[in-house]
Amino acid sequence: MPDSPRRSPVEHGFPHLETVRSAITALYRRLSADGVRRFATSLAPVDAAFADVDDLHLGAQRVARAMVHHYRLPDARVIVAFRSMEHAGSVELAAGPEYFVELNDRFRTHRRDIGAALSHEVAHVLLHRLGLEFPGTRDNEILTDTAAAYLGAGWLLLDAFREDATSSQKLGYLTPEEFGYVLAERAQVFGEDPSPWFTSPQAYTAYTEGRARALRDAARPPLTAAGWA
Q1: I need a labelling partner for 35 at 20 to 30 A (CA). Which of 28, 47, 69, 163 fits?
Q2: Is 47 exposed, middle or buried (0-12, 13-18, 19+ CB in 10 A)?
Q3: Given its phi and psi angles, is residue 203 left (phi above 0), alpha (psi -120 to 50 degrees) or beta?
Q4: Is the peptide bond before 97 cis (omega within 30 degrees of 0)?
Q5: Considering the domain boundaries, does residue 9 fall inside one?
Q6: CB under 8 Å to 49, separation ≥6 — which residues?
């Protein structure tokens, strides 16, 4: 999963929206509507909470277990390690039953975002077990971000977005507004409002912008973009 360095500007808007829509469609096709409804309740903030006084490895394992439970992966054991790396995290997708997740060393001191990183990496495990993937690294990572958000754990990825005049941070391939769009699409289906969980003001703003776009899409007449044939 990519990690926007502090010196780099964060991309905004909806540049990946067509892939995001395809990813949501793919989830329904693979899981069925009933299967998606199994994820009607989002991961609770308390399950991803990580205080600075918590033991790093024990806390990471606790949050990883919560992600495994949320994604309905009861027989998957996730082992979390930390090392110096370019991206925010990576996962070894073997046959199981154990999966090895490595997170960037910076999460040793940015523990509040460990849950966000794990929501993406454990979503990779779920999609691997479902045999669901998109061709190409970029589209497959967009699928993973979308799955994490639409299935109720990836609101943490949006909450990890923080930006001010001198620094910025964002996890994942989706823009903040695209994360907001996916969460709003989910909210329309399950009647769940994620906005009270955001600790980042920038995340809340991005969610409202994504929600506005999702509501505009919902108001469009069917087949307006279709050709005559």
Answers
A1: 47
A2: middle
A3: alpha
A4: yes
A5: no
A6: 115
Q: Which domain holds residue 22?
A: 17-219
Residue 120 lies in a domain: yes
79: tokens are: 């082992």
Task: Average the pLDDT over 118-131 and give the result.
Answer: 94
Is 63 inside any structural domain?
yes
- DSSP codes of every residue in 77-139: EEEEEEE--SSSEEEE--SSSEEEEEEEGGGGT-GGGHHHHHHHHHHHHHHHHHT---SSHHH
Say which amino acid occupies 95.
A
Give the mean pLDDT of the chain: 90
CA distance readout (Å), 185 to 74, 100, 152, 191, 216: 27, 31, 11, 10, 11
SS3 3: strand
For residue 146, CA distances in Å to 27, 97, 160, 180 come to 9, 25, 15, 10
Q: Spell out the residues 6+ positions from residue 66 whose beta carbon is closer than 8 angstroms to its own.
A: 43, 47, 48, 115
Q: Who contacts 106 (Cβ-Cβ below 8 Å, separation ≥6)?
A: none
pLDDT tens per residue across span 32-70: 999 999 999 999 999 999 887 889 999 999 999 999 999
Q: Which residue in this structure is represented by tokens 């989706």?
A: 174
Asked whether residue 29 carries a pLDDT value surpassing 90, the answer given is: yes
- State which amino acid sits at residue 79: I
- How many structural domains compose the chain? 1
Measured between alpha carbons, how far is 94 from 83 in angstroms, rounded to an integer? Answer: 20
Q: Is residue 224 part of a domain?
A: no
